[in-house]
């Protein structure tokens, strides 16, 4: 499942215009075209119904841990063949977010789609952590644990949802399924592919904060055994409640399926998306001053109380451009009624180019002087991947024992080339020659601004050029895996899985006039396992106990994140985690239309990388986490749907290694004072509820609430974001079979909250109240 870059030439996304002009040029004619299509459809009273999906497929629903799929017959299964049993009988916590739920909640990005899944939090960008989807699952950073149709999606990105069929969240150690990964879990994105019937769908929307969005989804059957599908998207909006921040993007995703009815099927697909935006800066923490004469000026540890619109960047300096291309060939052949062979080849390329202001509070300016240093984080990065996976799946019985299995091999290569920008005369304060900002304004070349009422439109005129320092990371993986669900009796099942990985990664930084060349290399092999025993007291329920392991080698992120390969860590062993989980899943009410789940779990990372007693980096740390989850999804009545979840997480840094309490010349390594502190970015309590009710055949109303407890931003536990509850609402009105309208109001009460806190310097501000109106068309 790993994806690795082909050996590519130095292909970078260069600075584009850095102005938001690409999508608006597309949106206006697209809106006009789709509006003209909608007018006759809305006026028609006897329009022939468009081809309909199977019964129930249009109803919104989020399935948690084996929630029943109302649109198909039989038990729900995950999209991956590595799940060798229906989700009801799979001894893991798995949440499936369907396209209906994504649409009803008004989500327009992957992070939007995941906000209603308890146990997942969003991290903030940092100096070494790039801007993009930065997910934490069960307290562990899962930034590199995103997959597309089961194949690892490398490179930092901000993913769209216009070509997504559903999102599957697997919680707990994920390495047996996907290879190198964190202990928290992984995200699998299931893409839209060509179907066996014709349809034409489109949406067009307008809203507050310059919201404009157009999508198209067209499917055509080609002859008797093939089909073509095309998904399109153009989007633009500002971030509600945040001055300056906003952007635009567009994407296209065609796919062709051959062999719709035969034993051999081939799916060819391509995905392209690019965006241009001004990224958010967030608000700095009211930072405790840890040393010097101003130690008494300790802040409270929460983000400063300033205007919600406060933006600390520079509108004519900051930008972020991204571009992503993914091509896939997915081949499947049914060797017999019980045996199938599959091969997937994936090429991908993603890159981003940005200058982004981090409102750095670590220098003491905010507390001492009421100023902020505009620290410029920059990146010019290109990641190219090539991956191939071959698997054999099937079922058989021997001696009265049934087996459902999947076994395969995976190969991948990836290359990340990363550079940065340099500025002349620089981004330090020229009055002090450092990042210290006793004053702000023109005399500091606008590198310093005020904490209260910063002006993002100040005339910053420093010259920008690309740094000659280029970091190249090449990674290769090979893996063999196997899974089997063994059914001893209809009541007792055993799920087992194992994987062997060979991971190699090499970092090269060429010499420059001021720095020597750097090279680091890691060669690591590791085994990971999972096993679960399932007892089914009734056909519609299961009770399970499971155990799983995970491994995170040095350089896990392939050179594009915080888990980077360095000379200091290249000889370390993978960080290994293990988890045990006890859970139950039930499909209740007539027809199994409502799903309920519960689980209690514990995970340990017993060789975390920390500073050892001699000052070196070693695998001597330990982290411990305990938790409880509950889930509910489905229909209470034919008109009333519900999705709810609650997660309790208690994460402790049991051993954080050692710190130097002496000096550099005379070090004195003592146990970390942070031993026993809570995991950063891990709310103790989180809960969500989304529900809809059909008042009649035409009108449906719905709403949701999300609660997230306090989250610490640092291992010191001195900075944190307060707990918050956010409310959303929606309503849909069906005019006729071909036209419906949907109104979404996000953050109904305009709650000020902070939803990205993994950086110890600032907290990301949640979007304010917004409204959007979408027209959903069939033609």
TrEMBL record:
Against Pfam families, the record matches this protein to: Plug, TonB_dep_Rec_b-barrel
Q: Does the keyword Membrane apply?
A: yes
Chief site of localization: membrane
Q: Which UniProt keywords apply?
A: Cell outer membrane, Ion transport, Iron, Iron transport, Membrane, Receptor, Signal, TonB box, Transmembrane, Transmembrane beta strand, Transport
Membrane is among the record's keywords: yes
Q: How does it sit in the membrane?
A: Multi-pass membrane protein
**PROSITE patterns this protein is in?**
TONB_DEPENDENT_REC_3
CDD domains associated with the record: ligand_gated_channel
Q: Where is the signal peptide?
A: 1-43
Cellular localization per UniProt: Cell outer membrane
InterPro entries hit by this protein: Beta-barrel_TonB, Beta-barrel_TonB_sf, Plug_dom, Plug_dom_sf, TonB-dep_rcpt-like, TonB_sidphr_rcpt
Where does the TonB-dependent receptor plug domain lie?
A: 87-185
Record family assignment: Belongs to the TonB-dependent receptor family.
List the protein's name: TonB-dependent siderophore receptor
């Amino acid at each position: 499942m790993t994806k690795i870059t082909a050996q590519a030439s130095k292909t970078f996304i260069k600075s584009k215009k850095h102005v938001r002009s690409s999508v608006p040029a597309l949106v206006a004619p697209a809106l006009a075209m789709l509006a003209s299509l909608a007018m006759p459809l809305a006026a028609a009273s006897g329009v022939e119904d468009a081809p309909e999906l199977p019964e129930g497929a249009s109803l919104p629903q989020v399935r948690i841990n084996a929630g029943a799929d109302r649109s198909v017959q039989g038990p729900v299964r995950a999209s991956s063949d590595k799940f060798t049993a229906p989700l009801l009988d799979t001894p893991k916590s798995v949440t499936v977010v369907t396209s209906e739920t994504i649409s009803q909640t008004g989500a327009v990005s992957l992070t939007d789609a995941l906000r209603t899944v308890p146990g997942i939090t969003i991290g903030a960008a940092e100096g070494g952590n790039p801007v993009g989807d930065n997910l934490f699952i069960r307290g562990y950073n899962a930034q590199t644990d995103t997959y597309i149709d089961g194949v690892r999606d490398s490179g930092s990105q901000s993913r769209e949802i216009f070509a997504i069929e559903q999102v599957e969240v697997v919680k707990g150690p994920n390495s047996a399924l996907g290879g190198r990964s964190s202990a928290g879990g992984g995200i699998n994105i299931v893409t839209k592919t060509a179907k066996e019937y014709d349809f034409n769908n489109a949406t067009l929307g307008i809203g507050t904060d310059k919201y404009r969005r157009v999508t198209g989804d067209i499917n055509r059957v080609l002859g008797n055994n093939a089909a073509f599908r095309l998904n399109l998207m153009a989007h633009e909006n500002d971030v509600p409640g945040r001055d300056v921040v906003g952007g635009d993007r567009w994407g296209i995703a065609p796919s062709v399926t051959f062999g719709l009815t035969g034993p051999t099927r081939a799916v060819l697909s391509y995905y392209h998306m690019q965006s241009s935006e001004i990224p958010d800066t967030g608000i700095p923490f009211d930072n405790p001053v840890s040393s010097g004469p101003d130690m008494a000026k300790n802040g409270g540890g929460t983000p400063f109380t300033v205007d919600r619109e406060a933006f600390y960047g520079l509108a004519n300096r900051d930008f972020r451009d991204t571009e992503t291309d993914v091509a896939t060939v997915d081949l499947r052949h049914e060797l017999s009624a019980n045996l199938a062979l599959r091969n997937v080849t994936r090429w991908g390329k993603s890159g981003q180019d940005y200058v982004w202001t981090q409102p750095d509070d670590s220098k003491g300016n905010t507390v001492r002087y009421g100023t902020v240093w505009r620290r410029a984080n920059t990146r010019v990065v290109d990641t190219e991947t090539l991956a191939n996976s071959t698997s054999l799946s099937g079922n058989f019985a021997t001696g009265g024992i049934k087996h459902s299995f999947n076994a395969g091999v995976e190969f991948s290569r990836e290359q990340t080339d990363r550079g940065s920008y340099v500025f002349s005369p620089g981004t330090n304060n020229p009055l002090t020659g450092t990042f210290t900002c006793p004053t702000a304004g023109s005399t500091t070349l606008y590198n310093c601004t005020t904490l209260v009422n910063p002006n993002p439109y100040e005339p910053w005129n420093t010259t920008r050029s690309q740094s000659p320092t280029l970091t190249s990371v090449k990674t290769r993986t090979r893996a063999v895996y196997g899974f089997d669900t063994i059914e001893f009796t209809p009541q007792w099942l055993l799920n087992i899985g194992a994987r062997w990985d060979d991971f190699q990664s090499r970092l090269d930084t060429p010499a420059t006039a001021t720095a020597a060349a750097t090279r680091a290399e890691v060669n690591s092999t590791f085994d990971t396992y999972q096993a679960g025993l399932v007892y089914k007291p009734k056909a519609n329920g299961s009770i399970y106990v499971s155990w799983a392991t995970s491994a995170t080698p040095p350089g896990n992120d392939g050179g594009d994140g915080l888990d980077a390969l360095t000379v200091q860590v290249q000889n370390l062993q993978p960080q290994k985690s293990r988890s045990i989980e006890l859970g139950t899943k039930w499909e209740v009410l007539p027809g199994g239309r409502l799903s309920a789940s519960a689980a209690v779990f514990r995970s340990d990372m017993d060789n975390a990388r920390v500073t050892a007693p001699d000052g070196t980096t070693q695998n001597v740390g330990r982290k411990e986490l305990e938790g409880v989850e509950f889930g509910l999804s489905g229909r209470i009545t034919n008109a009333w749907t519900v999705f709810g979840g609650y997660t309790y997480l208690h994460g402790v840094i049991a051993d954080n290694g050692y710190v130097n309490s002496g000096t550099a010349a005379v070090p004195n390594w003592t146990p970390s004072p942070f031993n026993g502190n809570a995991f950063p970015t891990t709310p103790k309590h989180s809960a969500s509820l989304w529900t809809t009710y059909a008042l009649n055949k035409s009108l449906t109303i719905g709403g949701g609430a999300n609660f997230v407890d306090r989250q610490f931003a640092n291992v010191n536990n001195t900075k944190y974001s307060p707990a918050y509850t956010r409310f959303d609402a929606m309503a849909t009105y069906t005019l006729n079979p071909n036209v419906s309208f949907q109104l979404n109001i996000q953050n109904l009460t305009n709650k000020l909250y902070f939803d990205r806190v993994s950086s110890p310097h600032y907290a990301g501000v949640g979007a304010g109240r917004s409204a959007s109106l979408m027209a959903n068309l069939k033609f």
